[in-house]
Amino acid sequence: MRAVQAREAGGPEVLSYVELPDPEPGPGQLLVRVAAAGVNFIDTYRRSGLYPMPYPHVVGVEGAGVVEGIGDGVTGFAIGDRVSWSEGPGSYAELVLVAAVHAVAVPEGLDLVHAAALPLQGMTAHYLVASTFEVGPGHDVLLHAGAGGVGLLATQLAVARGGRVITTVSSAEKAALSRAAGAAHTLDYAAMSDLTTELPAAVRELTDGAGVHVVYDGVGRSTFDGSLASLRPRGMLVLFGAASGPVPPFDPQRLNRAGSVFLTRPSIGDYLATRAELEWRSGELMAAAAAGDLDVRVGATYPLADAAQAHRALEGRGTTGKVLLVP
């Protein structure tokens, strides 16, 4: 099979398109022919060495495809089944081994390309608005990178739950996409010279001086201070990514001074703690997408061999929606 390996820690140039032996499913595993693999920031963190990994390793963890082989002890799946997954290490490949406990069936009415776009970003959006801070009627929400994959999905989910969503974007095109997803207001943070002061000032103007109930921040270092200052008393800052780099250590007394606010750094694994939780989140998302109630935007697809180009586009914030690799 053909696959994409990270030879060593580094930039996109360390990705190599290689030929490897076809894998064989072991106990509890499915062998899946990949229809599309998701490109995510976690892939770039592992490629760069920000998240420690062995090298070389086949990159990617997310995708959708068709079952071609079944290991011992697997029940509930058959050869030919269409499945998707968010925890399938080595997904930048023509074939991947996926633990059956991490695979979910793709419903009729949802194609495999869009099914591949949903697992990581979709379930992240779901746990953010349904569990980490449960958005409801009357809640004001600030969501960074509103035209990104998580941003577009989380906006739709939060609005459906009764929230009013303010997003940050970096261009007029991205503002239009965010508004189409349901954002009540968009703020161009690329035009702000000082996010620490200008961002919270703009947010408070939109909330009659109160601030928002929750900030969902997947950007990290460059937005953290402005996010914290945009909260109302007892609000929550949900730091779920670090697209601009990790947030430096800080004095917890800042949470006190900001109005007894909460800070959490969730991880998707803790919100998919059981099979029932995985099926709940993925089931709601895929049913909504299949019914046309959730718009899943695939912003770009690249051939598997062009994984480095896809990483450059993602890290350069030149993408909207979901980025996919197609073997």
TrEMBL record:
Domain Enoyl reductase (ER): 10-325
KW Zinc (keyword) present: no
Single annotated GO MF: mRNA 3'-UTR AU-rich region binding
Keywords: NADP, Oxidoreductase
Pfam families tied to this protein: ADH_N, ADH_zinc_N
Keyword Signal tagged: no
SMART domains in alphabetical order: PKS_ER (SM00829)
Example of a GO cellular component annotation carried by this entry: cytosol
Superkingdom of the organism of origin: Bacteria
Gene3D superfamilies, sorted: Medium-chain alcohol dehydrogenases, catalytic domain, NAD(P)-binding Rossmann-like Domain
InterPro entries according to UniProt: ADH-like_C, ADH-like_N, ER, GroES-like_sf, NAD(P)-bd_dom_sf, QOR-like
UniProt-recorded name of the protein: Quinone oxidoreductase
